[in-house]
Specification:
19% helix; alpha+beta
Length: 138
């Protein structure tokens, strides 16, 4: 399941008074997070993703995500069930002249979703068995 959010960062949103968005996810694993910044941000719009009080993205606690007209793609394997499913987007601007929208996309493998690697390994086992049966006949 993919969760998608948009957050508007205003010139008044500073590091001391940022935009904070609460994100509630279902159970499972976060596979990928993508943060897209519009052209014109000039690396002045910054954001982080938190799980309670711990910074989740970027992993270095003094780091921030920022870009100008690009998408930051973060592949990960984060257990929502054990770590908590309440996330918080925190965004702000450094000396902005006008507002910018930041787009956040979170790809979650839910517990009801089949495990593709397990299905793939079972298909391979079945094919090997069929090949051995055919070899036995020939």
């Amino acid at each position: 399941m993919i969760y998608s959010y948009s957050y508007e960062i205003l010139p008044a949103d500073t590091v001391d008074d940022p935009v904070v968005g609460h994100i509630k996810l279902n159970s499972g694993f976060i596979r990928r997070v993508q943060v897209s910044f519009p052209v014109g941000c000039a690396f002045a719009v910054k954001c982080c993703l938190y799980n309670d009080s711990r910074q989740l993205i970027p992993t270095n606690q003094d780091g921030v995500l920022c870009h100008d007209g690009g998408t930051i793609d973060v592949p990960m394997w984060y257990d929502i069930d054990n770590q908590g499913n309440d996330l918080y987007f925190v965004g702000w601007g450094d000396d902005l002249d006008y507002s910018h929208s930041v787009y956040l996309s979170i790809d979650v493998k839910e517990s009801t979703e089949p495990d593709i690697l397990l299905v793939q390994s079972r298909v391979i086992d079945l094919l090997e068995h069929l090949i051995n049966v055919i070899k036995g006949i020939l």
